[in-house]
Amino acid sequence: MKLHLNQFWKAGKKALPGDKVTPQKPGRAMRIPNVYEKDCPTRLVLDHIADKWTALILWKLVDGPLRFNQIRRIVEGISQKMLSQTLKQLERDGLVTRRAFATVPVTVEYSVTPLGHSLAEKMAAVSLWAQDNIDSVLTAQANYDAGVGENA
Fold it and tell me: Which pLDDT score is estimated for 17?
């Protein structure tokens, strides 16, 4: 049985066989994450993966390993600082690996992990939705900006 995110995340709640829950220390009760709870750790992950730079970088790395400056050239508009921060966060979250080569100067290459691949696959649907619906979104925005969206 798959548990939905809107179920409560309470210490001591017993998990049923087949329930998907977060692992805890041995001997402790399993906790079911509730993304709507303010202290739920899944919110941190959502914060990272909902970032536009994360999506754009992951999608490019799925095609194969890239060096820092290659990513920077491909992902137009990202600053060096933002790219560095995003790559570090992706590496920390286990979505990307960083490999340094002993060259002068040092060459660093980034590649997506299996966990990152699984996320990129899920995020691809959002990208396709955005591409398929951009005209409708732009029309809705123009209507709203023109006063059509004012109901108050």
Answer: 43
Shared domain for 20 and 80, answered yes or no, is no
Question: HSE of 83 in the Cβ direction (CA atoms, 13 Å)?
Answer: 18
Within-domain flag for 46: no
User: pLDDT digits over 66-101, tens only?
Assistant: 999 999 999 999 999 999 999 999 999 999 999 999
**Number of domains composing the chain:** 2
In a domain, 129, yes or no: no
Q: Answer whether residue 105 is part of any domain.
A: yes
In angstroms, rounded to a whole number, what is the distance separating the alpha carbons of residues 95 and 119? Answer: 8
The count of other CB atoms within 10 Å of the CB of residue 13 is 14
The CATH code of the domain that includes 99 is: 1.10.10.10
Tell me which residue range forms the domain holding 119. 51-124
Q: How far apart are CA 40 and CA 146, in angstroms?
A: 39
The tens digit of pLDDT for each residue in 11-40 reads 434 444 445 545 555 656 567 888 888 888
Give the DSSP letter string of 65-104: -EEHHHHHHHSTT--HHHHHHHHHHHHHTTSEEEEEE--S
What CA–CA distances, in Å, run from 120 to 59, 78, 86, 91?
6, 19, 15, 14
